[in-house]
Amino acid sequence: MVSFPRNALVSFPRNGWSACAEMVWSHSSESPIIFSRKADFYKKLGLLVAAEISAAQRNKIDHLINCIVNKNDISAEHASFESQLVQEIRAEKPELFDSILVEPDNQWIASLKLVVELYNKCIDQSQDILSEFQKQREIAKLRGAKFYSVYDEIGKSLKEGKAPSIRHLYNLNNVINIVGAE
Question: Which pick of 28, 31, 172, 182 has the fewest CB atoms within 10 Å?
Fold first, then answer.
């Protein structure tokens, strides 16, 4: 098992990926970070700080765990709570992180990174976002991926100015595992 370092629990930009896409990615980059830490991380963290947090804070930690287990999107409120909690613990009791030995699940970050790279390529080269994601869908379909339509769903969301959901990233990871990243 690998522990999360005190000063960088997961190496991932927290304030968006691209200047031109900051509005789309600002909140959506938080959820993959939280998901990559896994439910076990938050279970252990909750136990370690149980005596020092309120019942409402404990409920928010439990909500994060539930979202991770059920692959539900995390609200901006809960993502903000998580970020603030982790920052406070880093400042006041950084040694707590040394006792939480949970291997991160970086599939979430890798999936979002793939989406962002394709999105930024479209923006940089003035390409149609939906068309580019449809091309990726066709490649995935030809290679036998089960959830190839996720590219259409992500492309449509991005075209509407919405970030991909956690379910989109989960399904995209399944496609990547079958066909590889293009």
Answer: 182
CA distance 133 to 126: 14
**Cβ neighbours around 141 below 10 Å, total:** 15
Q: Taking the domains of the chain in order of start, what are their residue ranges?
A: 19-99, 107-179
pTM to 2 decimal places: 0.79
Instruction: Determine contact, residues 100/39, Cβ cutoff 8 Å.
Output: no
Q: What token pair was written down for 9?
A: 């629990």
- pLDDT for position 181: 57
Cα(128)–Cα(111) distance, integer angstroms: 20
Say how many residues make up the chain: 182
CA–CA dist 177, 140 (Å, integer): 11
From residue 24, how far is each of 15, 149, 162 by CA, in Å?
Answer: 11, 21, 6
| DSSP state string for the chain | --PPPSS-SS-S-SS-S-GGGHHHHTTTTHHHHHHHHHHHHHHHHHHHHGGGS-HHHHHHHHHHHHHHHHTPPPPHHHHHHHHHHHHHHHHH-GGGGGG------THHHHHHHHHHHHHHHHHHTT--HHHHHHHHHHHHHHTT-TTTTHHHHHHHHHHTT-PPPHHHHHHHHHHHHHH---
